[in-house]
Specification:
homodimer; 3-stranded antiparallel beta sheet; DNA-binding
Chain lengths: 141, 141
DNA sequence: CGGAATCCATGCTGATACTG
DNA sequence: CAGTATCAGCATGGATTCCG
């Protein structure tokens, strides 16, 4: 089910390391760390996902995510904008109106993320079961 | 909770939310948060990736990841084992030998992650360029 | 060698207040 | 409405130390 995407040859295979010019001191680790640093936070993925659907205003965004605070939304938005994943359009009006929209780059992120989300959804029960088994085996943890 | 309800038919589509019994207080956000909590940390993905390639011992793992500390490796391994993504095999010998291997579930994670990593690798330069542009436009930041 | 517990430093996150 | 700045609290990550 879901898009299993590629055939998944290896994980930290050489091609990945070669394709990455992360210039870190690690082979593929840098790439993973890179993507994690980018969308591994609590809200980035949510915001990009919401914006992928349609453009939204600051308040709209805050209303939809809800759990996010004013500060975090601003911070997340700025970071996303900086990475070119989200575009910010400010209208010099009164009251001020700012609309955020996902860029082409931001939309391209949706595909791979969807794959990961699909995996999580598909294997959620399996993980829960594993946790239950583990918890049962080590109750005094 | 009169949730603002779903507003992301594409990204956090209903089927995803339905498939997840994460029992959070968010609709599809929970799924993303869930997967983020699972592999969104600094090392889980790296460890699973390394193990996806082949089984490794504790020391081997620490040597390959390198940047990870003793404590973090143990913690990450335990967490991964708890989720059923990694299997732990301890040999009651002297000196003790413990081998870690990715489970079928752990290997299935490689596919979607690879997609995300591929995205990061492919759009890395685009993001860097965007950052440069942003940084250039906001020097007084 | 592998693991666990402790302690510490840092970062991230959230709440609040103030400005335009 | 949108954004920024400051403060305080919690969580994450790291180093060390002791045990099997």
């Amino acid at each position: 089910m879901t898009t299993t995407d590629a055939a998944a040859p290896r994980f930290a295979d050489h091609p990945l390391a070669s394709a990455s010019t992360c210039s870190s001191d690690e082979p593929a680790s840098g790439v993973i760390r890179d993507v994690l640093s980018r969308v591994g936070d609590k809200w980035s993925l949510l915001v990009v996902g919401l914006l992928d659907d349609r453009s939204l205003r600051f308040t709209e965004l805050q209303r939809k995510v809800d759990g996010i605070s004013h500060r975090m939304l601003t911070q997340t938005l700025r970071n996303l904008e900086r990475d070119g994943l989200v575009s910010r359009t400010a209208y010099p009006e009164i009251p001020p109106r700012v609309e955020y929209a996902a860029t082409d780059l931001g939309r391209s992120l949706a595909a791979p993320v969807l794959g990961l989300v699909g995996w999580a959804a598909a294997n959620h029960e399996a993980i829960t079961a594993a946790r239950d088994t583990y918890d049962d085996a080590a109750p005094g943890a």
